[in-house]
Amino acid sequence: MTVMSLENVHKSFGKNEVLKGVSLSIAKGEVVGIIGASGGGKSTLLRCATLLETFERGSLSYGDLMVAQEVDGRTVYAKKDVLAQAKQRFGLVFQNFNLFPHYTVLKNITDAPLRVQKRDKDEVMQTAAQLIEKMGLQGKENMVPNELSGGQQQRVAIARALCSHPDILFFDEPTSALDPLLTREVLRVIRQLAEEHMTMVIVTHEMAFARDVADRVVFMDGGVIVEEGPAAELINNPQHERTRAFLSKTEQG
User: Fold this and answer.
1) What Å distances lie between residue 143 and 6, 11, 68, 147, CA to CA?
2) pTM of the entire structure?
3) What is the Cα–Cα distance from 228 to 43, expressed in whole angstroms?
4) Number of neighbouring beta carbons within 10 Å of residue 20
């Protein structure tokens, strides 16, 4: 079952074409790592998939929901009610956490399920309590973000995304703002979610993590997907010269 599908997506900022006909489908339970140098289009692809950016050509669907489709050479987006439904199907974890600074940990996690999804309060609070325990945040429920470490803030962001019961979770460089120790604790949480078969797309510069945790790795460069394949195979034995050049640089770094 396909959870999310992008087809032939083109995206420009002014005269700069950042995505040049990218297609990507994610199956239920699949973990996909997206790697590549800065400026290759990885984050833009994620922003298009999560409706933070619109694209000029191509299509986007979430399961049976057609969110955007190409008509006569340009993309037409669905009406607001369909876009609202689509936004319920995914969660997004940013590199800089994007928590509400004046909300407590608990309110950050429960706000969208209660206010946007209008779910039963007891059920939401029970889910939040389970997630707080799972993320190792017990005792932090009434703290605000600036009282937490970066790793704790990122774990709150992951709990917030999961509390809305998304079909798929997107991570945009989830550890790039963290030091090595905090990086390890966040990657441990993502690894656990992968073991539980949570459907995830992870833009990451952590090659060893992508190799060990992802089912499939996609290498992007210059606004296109250059190569994709089983994670360990692609990272250990890349077929394309551009992929080899990128990976040899990251190993030296």
Assistant:
1) 39, 40, 40, 6
2) 0.94
3) 17
4) 15
Record the tokens describing residue 241, joined without a space.
């010269």
Q: Is 144:102 a contact under the CB 8 Å cutoff?
A: yes
Amino acid identity, position 198: M
What pLDDT does residue 136 have? 94
Q: Cα–Cα distance between 186 and 28 in angstroms, integer?
A: 23
* Per-residue model confidence as pLDDT tens digits over 110-122: 999 999 999 999 9
Helix and strand numbers (H, E) in the chain are 9, 11
Closest CA to 217 of 3, 53, 15, 30: 30
Name 217's Cβ contacts closer than 8 Å, sequence gap at least 6: 32, 33, 34, 35, 210, 211, 228, 229, 230, 231, 234, 235
The torsion angles phi and psi of 191, rounded to 5 degrees, stand at -60, -40
Contact 99, 160 (CB under 8 A): yes
> Which tokens hold the place of 6?
């992008």
Position 252 pLDDT exceeds 60: no
Three-state helix/strand/coil letters over 96-118 = CCCCCCCCCHHHHHHHHHHHCCC
Would you list the domain boundaries of the chain? 100-166
Token output for 42: 């990885």
